[in-house]
Amino acid sequence: MTPPAGNTQNNSYTPTGKTSVRGTLSEVTLYDAFGRVASITRGGIAKTRTYDAYGRVSFISDPNAATGTTYQYDALGRVIKLTNADGTSQTTAYGPATRTVTDERGKATTYTYRSYGDPEKQFLMAIAAADPAANISLTRDARDQVTSVSQGGFTRTYGYNVNGYLASVNNPETGDTLYGRDIAGNMVSSQVGASGVTSYTYDSQNRQTAIIYPGGTPSVKKTYDKTGNLLTSSSSGGIRSFAYNSVGLPTQERLSIDGKLFKLSYAYDSNDRLRSVTYSPSGSVIEYAPDVLGRPTKVSGYVDKATYWPNGMIKRIAYANGTVTSFGQTPRLWPSFFNTETTAGAEYLKSSYSYDGVGNLLSVNDFVDNNMDRTLAYDDINRLVGANGFWGTGVLTYDGVGNLIQQAFGSNSLSYSYDVQNRLAAVNGQRVANLSYDVYGNVSASGGNTYTYDDVPNLVCVNCGNAASKLEYQYDGLNQRSSVSSAGNKIYEMQDSDGKLRMQLDGETLTEYFYLGDQRIAQRVSP
Question: Region (Disordered): which ranges (predicted)?
Fold first, then answer.
């Protein structure tokens, strides 16, 4: 297979397998005597599976491991037990219209379905949780579409038009939200409660071309290339524009606002792995040296070497200043420890973690300062109810819909109360605040501060009536914050299309943010 650019992919076959090679990346799939996948090895990382006498998957390994997950079935071929790599297990029992799952903590949740006698079409009607206060019930129409969901005395309802598209939602917090649809099902209008109407337009290929908000909220306009990639998304808070290579990967994304231009340029290797990002206006180039699976192994100037566990979790980061951070894994592939050493080998951060069978964090042990040790506890539906640490004993309680109603940490406590619409109304204790809301359900006032939103809704102003503490925000065509203004000073921001903050410009001072994958590693301030 020859792509428009980059390395060609070559496939070869044997009686028991297939090998695909593209540049330095190979993927080998092996089959058993019945033609079932026995293993897949990609970039040197293998996952295997085995089958029982009836052809059902009985084991799937973790990456590059002999351990993994095993499965047991009943006479009807339904999974009744799942055993994890650490020996914990989850069981499932089936009734005429129910499925009860008992998790690794021994807590049972029962799901009730309706199926009209067809086991392949089951529709969830109720969830009976380990804590009855959290039970959920659903109703459905003749098309089996959900028409209501109820929990803890609150109900959300859903309405549909004659074509089966969602036309309305009633939420306790905001009342009715109405949706207009075209014949293709595209949403052409929306209105939340007493707000104005937001309109949406589309081209002949059902791509959204404009969003027209009510009031003074800036509209957004979008254009696309012939293959459907977004080219521009424009708003008064900034114009975002993009360029792509011949295989559709982004090569540039730009933000233009108030005559200023911020740009990120992306370069790839011949296997389409991200090789570098160039920041403009500074011209800074960050190299990533991707491994065979496309994972960055460095951040030039800041990280000399990064390695990974077979499942993709970072294993070790060697920083350019000589500091090294290491991460361990449990048999369930959860983080087991975190350790940071200086160039001299001195440990100044070292913690270990333990978990229960469902992955709730139970303890954090700090080997540098044991005063920072923490233990945590959870209720039957995995909500945090206890947290003990340097603050003393911590206790948290909830209502039936999961709202936090009380927290006490040592001598400090806070209580929370909610209004009839299930919105947080007041906080009392060491801190006191009364809250009010706008039509969209956003907090409009709390603790002496006021908050103003546009019709997106985005926060556009804090304390608009107080010049000394007033903050104003703008948003670009991707609905990402592009500026912050206070006391006559305006700071510009560019986030990438994934929402990671990349640049800030405050007067003549440019701050750039650098990442290893999604983890922010460093920032550079210039001049």
Answer: 1-20
Q: Give the distance, in angstroms, between the CA of residue 485 and the centroid of all CA atoms in the same chain.
A: 29
Q: Where are the beta strands (DSSP E) in 320-469?
A: 324-329, 335-341, 347-355, 361-366, 374-378, 384-388, 394-398, 404-409, 412-418, 424-429, 433-437, 443-446, 449-453, 459-462
| Per-residue pLDDT reduced to its tens digit, 42-92 | 999 999 999 999 999 999 999 999 999 999 999 999 999 999 999 999 999
Tell me: pLDDT of 117 over 80. Answer: no
Among 43, 62, 83, where does a domain finish? Answer: 83
φ/ψ (deg, to 5) at 132: -55, -25
> What torsion do the CA atoms of 10, 13, 18, 19 make, to the nearest 10 degrees?
-40
Q: Percentages helix, strand, coil for the chain, rounded to the nearest 5?
A: 0, 55, 40
Q: Is residue 37 in some structural domain?
A: yes
The pLDDT score that the predictor gives to residue 438 is 97
> Which among 258, 202, 231, 185 has a CA at the least distance from the CA of 497?
231
331, part of any domain = yes
Boundary (domain end) residue, out of 48, 83, 118? 83
Domain that holds residue 354: 302-372
Q: φ and ψ at 371, to 5 degrees?
A: -65, -15
Integer Cα distance of 4 and 276 in angstroms: 20
Query: Cα(401)–Cα(298) distance, rounded to whole angstroms?
Result: 45
Cα–Cα distance for residue pair 484/492, rounded to 1 Å: 7
Structural domain total, the chain? 2
Give the Å distances, CA to CA, from 240 to 174, 192, 230, 397: 32, 27, 10, 45
C-alpha torsion sign, points 350, 356, 358, 360: negative
**Cβ neighbours of 303 (radius 10 Å):** 24
Asked if residue 513 belongs to a domain, the reply is no
Q: CA–CA separation, 269 vs 296, rounded Å?
A: 12
pLDDT in tens, 1-51: 788 888 999 999 999 999 999 999 999 999 999 999 999 999 999 999 999
Q: Which two tokens stand for residue 483?
A: 């500026």
CA atoms of 128 and 264, how far apart (whole Å): 50
In a 13 Å sphere around the CA of 78, the CA atoms on its Cβ side amount to: 13
Token output for 64? 């590059």
DSSP string, 296-336: B--BTTTEEEEEE-TTS-EEEEEETTS-EEEEEE-TTS-EE
